[in-house]
Q: What sequence folds into this?
């Protein structure tokens, strides 16, 4: 008897929609049977003569789906139903349904842009919103709306916000299946503490809870942990208590060897305790699960723009993910979900997990778009558009790798990179190794970097040392066998055999290959601390502990942890000597700096990798526009250091000009009539303009002090303006004695004329300046040049104060001229009586 699936109720609607050339959005909860039910029904209904591609989010899910479909149909895996995942394929010429990962689907698009042999594409578990599946949907939409309107498309999801999707697929219909599930009781934690974050703490809490739940429930138990480290630590803690029971502990994660993944899913007579990452959340089904223990945590790929690398970060899962996990306990009978957080903490979690496109590296996606001829990334039909910052970072990386040119057109190198199932960085490394003849070692490096769980990443290590560890490690250790397998598959993809994997390493060629992929990760060590350095782009880098190779001045940070103010380099390649500089693009620049000690400009010739200076030598300094700007930037707010302080004529000119600016804004007299000739600029503006001009052919403050400031400043006036300025605001004033005496212009006060009393005989009134607007202030001096009186009313002084001052000064300076009537007396230059001067 064939068991009917809940999804069967919707099959006719799906088929009708496809026959009308509509895209179908199918929403069905876990357990509805969509992954196996829809493809098999499409084959039975002969909806298309072409292939049906079933796109699953992970390798384990694609293999599991193909195997389950084959079992249900009673056929051999790889005949009617097959799969194609990274380095693993089971299909034949008659295969109707091929389950594959989004990555393999995108690579198929690279070689078969129109999908000519494909009749239908099914995107399963779309709610996980990986970047690759978003990209796949955008390309399918492009195909269907241009050259392949008959291509059939189904988008399936357990929990999906369908509004944005239906707005994108304007010809779509949305079908909802109610599914079939049993009630799941939620057991909340009673602790008020925050969620554990350390691997050891998570493992301890989870192992304790699993032991409790295993004794309390029957059936298989599924435990969700954030990552491989926590899974292994929990498995170690559980290995003792479960050693002599009818239970078996399984581990399940994306990088697990396929045969081990298959054993997790396969039926078993023993009760299973499955320790899984979020790979088990929706992608695969483990029969007989009646209890779920949920840590509430997951490691998701995040993009760190500060160091330009994607990284796995520990974080809280969303409420939607928690619901998916809990639902795994109610597939066949009522179940129970035990959560390690309380109900109030649950309410503060986000409703849904943000799509990967807003939190990860876009370089692989942008390279695919470039290969397809897409030049405007933001014009591509995205369900969720990427951020401009992320697009710019990915574009910059691809240009640095030589994968695309400045117009976004893929280069030959970029096309070759796109053919490899690797991140663009690793693909660039392998492409370079092809040219240099060091493919085996480089493929081993690429496999080691792509399979993240090969070896410990707790401490910094040299890449060559890590490869040595890899070669000597026991192949039974977790991840080691998988790394070698991936390396062997890469070599076969490139038409090479794997014999050289255990051979000697050409370290120079390997260094060049790594350099081609990571030239933006070159780090210059600090001279005073070789365990720290500065990376291209300015990011601070540190090593967790010193290495034997710390004597080299530079290294490549291959693997980084970007947390903190300084990123931690966990895997490095030391760059010995200068030979590596021949293989990077160096830019030359002439740098001009200001030497504060000499108060002068100095020039240096620099060779750089981006902003990282690798060579720096003194250079001849030739004044030009750039040097003028640098000198001006240093001098413009320090005029006191560049103006000749001992030049009284210049200081007087500036003071007169500043005083003119004051009174023309209202101080001391009426403002200048607006109908008069326009005034020259303010003195501060004139000084800055003059300074900028004088900096053009000078390189130091000393040269500026020797410059013709007066000539340049006076040139700011027109001829008539200058004449008027000198008349209205004279530098010196001729007094009755015939002497010319310098006026002292002071801010906020009338100008001061300091003069001996005898030199003013004959003047009856205080002199004025500024066209008669401003009275001078007179500082009247005795023969000893000491002030006797300060006044701005000379007539009043003659009539009153002079009488008393004359008595005193006549007694002390009897030979000097002290007339009774100063207004009619003759002024003398030195104060001596005129008749005494004549007798001499």
A:
């Amino acid at each position: 008897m064939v068991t009917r699936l809940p999804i069967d109720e919707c099959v006719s609607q799906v088929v009708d929609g496809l026959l009308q050339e509509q895209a179908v959005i199918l929403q069905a909860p876990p357990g509805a049977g969509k992954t196996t039910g829809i493809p098999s029904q499409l084959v039975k209904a002969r909806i298309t003569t072409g292939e049906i591609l079933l796109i699953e989010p992970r390798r384990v899910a694609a293999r599991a789906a193909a195997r389950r479909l084959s079992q249900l149909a009673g056929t051999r895996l790889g005949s009617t139903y097959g799969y194609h995942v990274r380095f693993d394929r089971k299909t034949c010429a008659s295969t109707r349904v091929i389950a594959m990962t989004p990555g393999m689907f995108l690579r198929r698009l690279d070689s078969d842009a129109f999908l000519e042999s494909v009749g239908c594409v099914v995107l399963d578990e779309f709610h996980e919103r990986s970047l690759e599946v978003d990209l796949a949907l955008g390309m399918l939409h492009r195909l269907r709306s241009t050259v392949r309107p008959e291509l059939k498309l189904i988008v399936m999801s357990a929990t999906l916000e369908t509004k944005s999707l239906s707005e994108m697929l304007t010809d779509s219909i949305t079908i909802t299946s109610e599914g079939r599930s049993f009630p799941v009781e939620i057991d909340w934690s009673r602790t008020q503490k925050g969620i554990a974050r350390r691997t050891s703490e998570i493992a301890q809490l989870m192992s304790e809870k699993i032991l409790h739940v295993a004794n309390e429930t029957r059936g298989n138990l599924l435990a969700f942990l954030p990552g491989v480290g926590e899974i292994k630590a929990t498995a170690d803690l559980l290995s003792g208590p479960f050693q002599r029971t009818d239970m078996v502990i399984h581990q399940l994660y994306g990088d697990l060897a396929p045969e081990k993944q298959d054993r997790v899913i396969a039926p078993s007579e023993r009760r299973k305790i499955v320790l899984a990452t979020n790979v088990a959340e929706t992608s695969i089904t483990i029969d007989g699960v009646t209890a779920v223990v949920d840590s509430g945590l997951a490691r998701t790929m995040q993009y760190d723009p500060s160091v330009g690398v994607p990284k796995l970060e520990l974080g809280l899962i969303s409420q939607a993910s928690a619901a998916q996990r809990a639902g795994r306990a109610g597939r066949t009978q009522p179940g129970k979900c035990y959560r390690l957080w309380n109900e109030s903490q649950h309410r503060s979690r986000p409703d849904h997990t943000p799509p990967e496109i807003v939190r990860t590296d876009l370089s692989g996606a942008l390279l695919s778009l470039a290969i397809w001829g897409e030049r405007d990334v933001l014009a591509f039909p995205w369900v969720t558009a990427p951020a401009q910052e992320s697009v710019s970072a990915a574009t910059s990386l691809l240009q640095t790798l030589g994968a695309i040119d400045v117009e976004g057109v893929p280069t030959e190198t970029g096309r070759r990179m796109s053919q490899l199932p690797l991140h663009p960085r690793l693909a660039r490394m392998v492409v370079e190794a092809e040219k240099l003849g060091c493919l085996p070692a480089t493929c081993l490096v690429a496999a080691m970097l792509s399979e993240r769980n090969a070896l410990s990443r707790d401490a910094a290590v040299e890449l060559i040392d890590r490869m040595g560890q890899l070669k000597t490690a026991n192949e039974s250790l977790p991840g080691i066998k998988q790394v070698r397998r991936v390396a062997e598959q890469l070599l076969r993809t490139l038409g090479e055999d794997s014999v050289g994997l255990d051979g000697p390493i050409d370290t120079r060629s390997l260094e060049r290959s790594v350099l081609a992929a990571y030239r933006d990760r070159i780090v210059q060590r600090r001279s005073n601390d070789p365990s720290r350095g500065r990376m291209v782009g300015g990011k601070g880098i540190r090593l967790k502990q010193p290495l034997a190779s710390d004597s080299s001045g530079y290294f490549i940070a291959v693997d980084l942890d970007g947390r903190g103010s300084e990123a931690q380099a966990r895997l490095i390649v030391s760059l010995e000597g200068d030979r590596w500089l021949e293989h990077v693009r160096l830019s030359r620049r002439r740098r001009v700096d200001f030497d504060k000690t000499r108060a002068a400009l100095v020039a240096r010739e620099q060779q750089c990798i981006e902003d990282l200076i690798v060579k720096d030598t003194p250079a001849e300094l030739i004044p030009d526009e750039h040097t003028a700007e640098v000198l001006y930037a240093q001098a413009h707010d320090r005029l006191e250091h560049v103006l000749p302080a001992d030049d009284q004529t210049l200081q007087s000119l500036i003071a007169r000009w500043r005083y003119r600016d004051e009174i023309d804004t209202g101080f001391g007299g009426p403002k200048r009539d607006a109908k008069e000739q326009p005034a020259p600029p303010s003195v501060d503006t004139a000084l800055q303009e003059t300074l900028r001009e004088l900096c053009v052919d000078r390189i130091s403050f000393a040269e500026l002090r020797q410059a013709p400031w007066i000539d340049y400043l006076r040139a700011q006036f027109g001829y008539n303006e200058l004449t008027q300025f000198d008349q209205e605001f004279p530098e010196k004033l001729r007094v009755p004695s015939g002497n010319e005496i310098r006026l002292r212009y002071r801010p906020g006060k009338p100008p001061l004329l300091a003069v001996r009393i005898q030199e003013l005989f004959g003047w009856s009134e205080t002199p004025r300046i500024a066209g008669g607007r401003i009275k001078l202030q007179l500082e009247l001096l005795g023969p000893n040049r000491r002030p006797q009186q300060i006044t701005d009313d000379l007539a009043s002084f003659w009539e009153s104060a002079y009488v008393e001052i004359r008595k005193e000064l006549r007694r002390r300076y009897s030979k000097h001229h002290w007339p009774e009537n100063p207004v009619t007396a003759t002024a003398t230059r030195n104060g001596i009586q005129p008749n005494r001067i004549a007798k001499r």
